[in-house]
Amino acid sequence: MILASTFSKSGSYFALTDDSKRLILFRTKPWQCLSVRTVVRRCTALTFMASEEKLLVADKSGDVYSFSVLEPQGCGKLELGHLSMLLDVAVSPDDRYVLTADRDEKIRVSWAAAPHSIESFCLGHTEFVSRIFVVPDHPELLLSSSGDRTLRLWEYRSGQELHCCHLTSLREPAEPWADKRFATSRITYWCQEGCVALLCDCIPVVYIFQLDAHRQQLGYRQQLAFQHRVWDIAFEEGQGLWVLQDCREAPLALCRPVDGWWQAVPENAALKKVSACLRGNWAMLEGVAGVDVGFSGLYKATFDNVTAYLRKKEERLQKRRQNPPPGPNGQAKKTKPGEASLRCSS
């Protein structure tokens, strides 16, 4: 099963990792497998450096390893580590910083040349950070999402939070998923319009936001609802938003803004061609894209043992009042007036 995959910035390389701890690197022009290497632990995320000379791989133990693209048979090198599970990794467009997101609510910004040197932390999320995304045409800005159901905008070099959108405030109470916990499984960005699209892991909705980089804030525009589970989304410059969904008859939808309102466009030649290819490989696609991303087990567990302790304490006091302990001569000890109430308050 494929755990993570990514293309390089130019599209010349493609890499994936699977549950057999294999890291497979391809050249796309033409398609050719360059290497099959082994990673230390199961991976959670991977990304290419902007120079496309190295590939960064984050794993479940909190480590990031780098693998050479120019030397496809080279072994991995440990670059940095967290004390908790890593969920995403990103790189600044100038390759100066490596950004990592973990289960313990932290986003860390490290120097790529010396990863032990930390530039900043972006702190504010109250649950695991599921996805991070450096805005391509505003490289000083970072988008992040979390199990706390927020989308946040950061100036990541200083660790300053610029804006926070609470996704729960955007939902209607009558929606069947209104009470569900959810986390973002994909953040994608359209430079042409400055639009941010957000896909959550267990609800058939895509949220659309507008990034105002000058004011350093996010504006909610609308949500796109679908009848089937949405597996993935991606913007294509000049085209719009591609939506891959769990429906063999119509596996793909293309959405574009029409008079400022996003909607699905009628099926065109490009959409028909790609949809036919997906239907022809549906068994493979369903086994890969249909796998749960697994955020449900990452939420913090809460235990209310204080209430149980107070209840048991009261039960012990009740038994003591009903059956007082014997005195020094074997007689039951008399309870003085007011002593029971004092014991209860102790």
Task: Please specify the SSE layout and strand pairing.
Elements: E1 2-7, E2 13-18, E3 22-28, E4 31-38, E5 43-48, E6 54-59, E7 63-68, E8 77-81, E9 86-91, E10 97-102, E11 106-111, E12 118-123, E13 129-134, E14 141-146, E15 150-155, E16 160-166, E17 184-190, E18 195-200, E19 205-212, E20 217-225, E21 230-236, E22 240-245, E23 252-258, E24 261-264, H1 269-280, H2 282-289, H3 305-322, H4 339-345
Antiparallel strand pairs: 1-2, 2-3, 3-4, 5-6, 6-7, 7-8, 9-10, 10-11, 11-12, 13-14, 14-15, 15-16, 17-18, 18-19, 19-20, 21-22, 22-23, 23-24
Question: What does this 3D model show about the protein?
Answer:
The protein is mostly beta strands. The chain has four helices and 24 strands. The chain has helices at residues 269-280, 282-289, 305-322, 339-345; strands spanning 2-7, 13-18, 22-28, 31-38, 43-48, 54-59, 63-68, 77-81, 86-91, 97-102, 106-111, 118-123, 129-134, 141-146, 150-155, 160-166, 184-190, 195-200, 205-212, 217-225, 230-236, 240-245, 252-258, 261-264. The strands form six sheets. The chain has a four-stranded antiparallel β-sheet with strand order 1-2-3-4, with no helix packed on it. The chain has a four-stranded antiparallel β-sheet with strand order 5-6-7-8, with no helix packed on it. 28% of the residues are buried. Residues 339-346 have low confidence and may be disordered.
